[in-house]
Amino acid sequence: MNNFIVGYGETLTTKVDIGGGGGDKKHPYTISDAIKRISSQLEEIIIKIESKPDAECAGGKVVVKFIQHPSYLAKSYYPRKLFSAYGMDDIGSRAVTIKPEKWGVTKHPEAGLASCVFVSGTKDHYRKLLTDLKSSSLSRASEDVLRTLERIEYFDADEKIKNIDASGENLNLEVVIHASADEDYIVRAFDSYTTLNGGAVRREKAKIVGGLTFLPVNIPRGKEQALANFAQLRVLRSIPKLRMNKPDALRSPVSSTVKLPDWDPDILSRDFKVCIFDGGLGDGNQISNWVTEIVPEGMEATNPEYLAHGSEVCSAYLFGPAQGADCSLGAPYTPVDIVRVICQGDDDPDLFDVLTRIENVLKLKIYKYINLSLGPNIAIDDDEVHVWTSVIDALLQDGDCLAVVAVGNDGDLPGDYGRVQPPSDMVNSLSVGASDGDDDGWARAPYSCMGPGRSPGVVKPDGVIFGGSPQNLFRVYSPRIHSFIDTMGTSYAAPYALRVAAGIDAITNFDLSTNTVKALMVHSAKQGVHDLKDVGWGKFPTSPESVITCLDDEATIVFQGELENSKHLRIPVPLPLSTDATWVHLSATFCISAIVDPEHPLHYTRSGLEISFRANEDRFTMEGANPDTKPFFSLGKLYPSEYELREDAHKWETTLSKHQRFKRTTLQSPVFDVKYHAREQGGAISEDLPAIRYTLILTIRAEGDTSIYNKILQENRTLQAINVRSRIEV
């Protein structure tokens, strides 16, 4: 008899009060040193901005970079008090690596990660600040901020220009402006400035996320430098092409008899809805019993290539890859909708129209799971968040919908060109790469894009699943020709992973949140000997049945609940006292959905978890100190030499997963203490954000003790094994 995963772990949790601590800060610079250094730098900036034309400065404002010392990354040091004191606005930030003049401590690296804050102010604002610096008239609060600064710099046009394809006479650009929905005057000013330079802004296609406005712009080649002089412009780059699959990907027909699963509407779960955004389905297919095609207005015209891709992505979701010599197909778990988002003659090079079609559907809030096997064909940028990522991530941050996203097929390109592609860098999604097989000896498929992602969101892809390789192709049923096709690509891996994720939900009679399903997928992934940047958390399981069962000497418990801002929640590890084992293995996966701020890539998530593991709950002093407290998760060990991370990077990740082994004798009423941290835009502490939903998947394995599962249920009567629908034979 199978032991199924256990639900209602949240009934075991309690709220606790834990005191904080911290010593005096060792500042690299005295206040007098800081005033001298910053005064000199500000004088140079004012000389530059005095002659800046009014047409380049919306509202008479200029943007300056305030770069903090690496020692002041913590959210409590965010320099907003200085800006507000002088009427300036902090409008965004990014991470930079710098070599400061001084460190303030004996042991330090040569260079460190620092926060670069973009500040908007009038020329008078900067003059007033310089006057007060020279006359020592700053308030104490402003002085405290000033000593955290390493330097201030003018935001030069050259550093705003990225990835320009200058092959044509006119450039199609994606431009990012520091302008919120309430700052239309900035967009109007930019429109006028672009016209002065012979260009045109497509304002009707604007996408506004937080404090950023994304705009498609057409401008004569050679004018990009002038365009970048606009003060509130943050970045400009060529608009990438749409990716679905590699143009040279094999698509070989297979001679084999096709036998589709029997159509039985009674065994399909209809408790939630699933949607695929792709090229459509078209008439004359063989899967219309399971698939409903939605064709937005104006999308009626299409072509066979788009229909083939869309219908085969649907097939991969419904049936998975064909298995064995007889090409058997798996039975679908749910019906699925497919929304046609690309069509014949859809040569919109900026992809804004495609994104709008996706956005319009997501705003309806009717789908619990979606699949994206398309997106911009460009590697992610650590400094800037792409418009696709920004728009879709914001629509997913309430946790009501899980997006499963293909990472792209350029993993065989050199260096950063092979990194994951938008929008698979979203933190509120499950990004999927391709493995070259399912058997022992599997590896990342050579074309599958690699990590790391941006931090937060550093572990990308989230995982891999079979997507085919030149030596082991993905055999998919093609509804358009009622035959099998041998092919490969993350386009097929993503819906295959979605089949498993939605299948977990479909076969269980339990209210699983999208965070829980994502956490179960990550928790069940097997990394093996592979590098994290290649496979993320590991290879995902290929059947939902394998996810919901436990081994003989283990129990997996699902905790679903809410975390209150700045409060501690104690989550016990219900290890029975009578556990008969020398070694105990604990595997824990935490998952949350987070509010995102694309204008602040360094502080991209506004929700984070501080997680402490205590091997012995009773050894806890009144002051909150605990000799047995240790970090369970540490991202620093994930990318030790290849990727620089801030010291507290793990606290701002939406997904954390780790396995550790303990001597049984060292665990006496072990617990996780979890604190939910919230920050405002840019990183300043916030007490206003509401409670968030969290999931913890906890597996307790006692080597050789096959009674542990029943012991846990007997000792914790509020826990219940999750029921499985009778249609499934496990």
From TrEMBL:
Pfam families: Peptidase_S8
Signal peptide start-end: none
Ranges for domain Peptidase S8/S53: 288-538
Name of the protein in its database record: Peptidase S8
